[in-house]
Amino acid sequence: MTIGHGSIHDDVGENLLIVNKMARVFRQGKLWSRNRDGNVSLAVGDIFTSKEEFLNVMKDYCVQHGVSLRKIKNTRSRYTQRCINNDYPFKIHAVVLVDKCTWMIRSLNEGHKCPNTQFNKHASSKCVATKLLDEFKDNPNMDKGTMQKTLMRRFGVPDYTCWRVRKLMKNVVEGRHDEGYKGIIKTLKNIMPQASRRICVLHFYKNFASLYPGAWFDCFFYIAANAYSEFVFKKAMDKIKDKDISDFHWLRDNEPLEHWARFKFDQTLKVDDNTNNFVESFNNAIVKHREKPTYTMLEEIRKLIGARFDKRFQISADWDGKVTPFVEKKLKKVELESRNYCNLVPAGRGEFAVREGSTNFTVKLAYHYCDFQRWQVSGIPCKHVARCILSLNHKLDDYCYPWFNVESYRKLYDGIIHPIPDSCLWGESELPALDPPFELRKRGRIEKHKRRKSRLPIPPQLSTIQLSGTKRKKPQQKTGNPVGRPRKIQRLSLASTSTAAASGVPTQSS
């Protein structure tokens, strides 16, 4: 094309000619659309926006009617298919229009009467997955047998295609595992470097008991782990040290005391839990989402937490007390214990001496201090502090840490977790893509290691076998540890025995 007025007028005239021709075509034909029931019907004059759309419609037509076609012509301007059985006259012919993009059916002979095939080669896994996707979204836990019967009845696909279809639909609904790792680059340590770490005492004791079993160690281990004061902790550890010093070194060197001993917990957190029961409760709530890819799993957890925030905020609106109902139950129990087991000696100005059994504890209400140290660690008054508070006719909830108030609870759940738009609307990211780790698996069948509980030698099981051609029986050891090298016994056949006897050579039976 050259720059000039003549060339511009030529282009305009050519475009007008194409428009006029396309207008005549659309007056003669119609733009193809699927039937209301979702079935595919073809007719002469049907127009398709592209060749790709035409091929997809032909694939749906073959799957719907259970027919098999073969290509006769496949070029940029023409496409022809006919029945794979030459005895039947089915044939379809489509051509490209003047715009070089739109396609139209020029001729169609639907005289197709050949029997349907059991397995349709046009029903690929991708094609079937698109047809069954809406049903799978409504019932993602569809039974595999039900899905297999449905696919076989509607599309005529073999068993192995059913598994591929299920995998494709699951990737579409739940997301792919390789896509779920995108965006997770920073680790927990980089995100929350100031967070403290604890371990579950129950699991820690299981590791300890596997090496040092016994009820005696069980008793003193839990005394040391649950002690709020350093004095009680050292007394319990000394008992373990006197019994077995290796146990003492294992507890001291295996994990830092800040991870499992209560007296070493950070007192600013006001949490004395040394088990992971609340974590197990959360895992039980998300167990059905844990097998999903990372992004889908996090999205489901976000929905779960958002709904839980709203529910707990609505529940807290009906509370009238100063502290939460959970703390009220604890305070009632502490109040009962303080009246039954503690004796009080006031010293003045908010200081007291509380005697429990043969032990004295000092309490300073103004400084929120108690020798038992449970008040400092948990933030809730212990029985020694409660005895002092009740002697002053004060309320126990006034001495609880502010985090346990109803107002603090409401402030925690007052915010909302905003919904997130679909991932297709996020746009492109400049961060590098994070691929999932490769699954390293050895070839062949996985070996099964049968570990025996006892290390004692296995007693051998002896049996005898009959030597051929003789009356002698040979002992045979099946199991156990063989002692020494067994003597080789040559087996003699009946023919060799008779030959040796005739020649005068002695045999083993003689």
From TrEMBL:
Entries under InterPro entries matching the protein: Transposase_MuDR (IPR004332), Znf_SWIM (IPR007527)
Chain intervals with Basic residues compositional bias: 442-455
Domain SWIM-type: residue ranges: 361-393
UniProt-annotated stretches for the region Disordered: 442-510
Alphabetically ordered keywords of this record: Metal-binding, Zinc, Zinc-finger
Biased composition (Low complexity): 492-503
Pfam family of the protein (one): DBD_Tnp_Mut
Molecular function per GO: zinc ion binding
Protein name: SWIM-type domain-containing protein
Organism: Carnegiea gigantea
